[in-house]
Amino acid sequence: MEEYNRRMNELLNSLKKAKGKEKTQIQEEIDKLKKIEDMCRYFDDATTLSKMLSEWLAREPLAKGIFVMSGGGGGMMEAANKGAALANMDNIGLNISLPFEQQPNQYISPHFNFEFHYFFMRKFWFVYLAKAIVTMPGGFGTLDELMEILTLRQTLKVTKPLPIVLYGSNFWKKLIDFDLLIEKQLISPEDLNLFKYADTPQEAFEYLTTELEKNLKKKAKKLSLE
Fold this sequence. Notes:
By secondary structure, this protein is mainly alpha-helical. It has two domains: 1-35, no CATH class; 37-225, Rossmann fold (3-Layer(aba) Sandwich), CATH 3.40.50. Helices cover 57% and strands 10% of the residues. Helix 1 (2-17) runs antiparallel to helix 2 (20-34), helix 3 packs parallel to helix 4 (76-86) and helix 3 packs parallel to helix 9.
């Protein structure tokens, strides 16, 4: 939010001095900026949550070898890697080569910075390695990955314990009308149990760490009996 507030203050100060067409243009830019205020908050929340989870992973004996992992690019992906870096923890970036926008962000641990050419290989490694998933507000790529993992869970193609958080309930409920899908009998009411909404870093943290601790203990117990 720091960058957002700085830019907003600049525009508001310019608006006071502007006249005519220039004033209209500045007001339009202010209105446009206001529409993404929540996205800036989500970035900060993603950074905070990643830092909290990374610090928890460092303290949890059973979580050795588990790190925060993102798609490696900017935006919410950068926020995830930034939070882990602020916690002085290694973190992973699964970057993909695209003709525009996607470049590895500066917070990825250099030895964990991977580059993919094919989306399907990148998604395979996301799911194969994942112990939990946090889906922040995003565009087509985010929706593609979210729907694929929900389908894999729904159809029992992925059966391992995998808590999924949709962060920002207001965003997700506006974007996807799950109730409509249930009403039209396209999904079952039970399918909503595949994920959980969270609206604060603390809420997401408590849910994820509770689930992770439970799943890690089950795995450790199983290994001790083998």
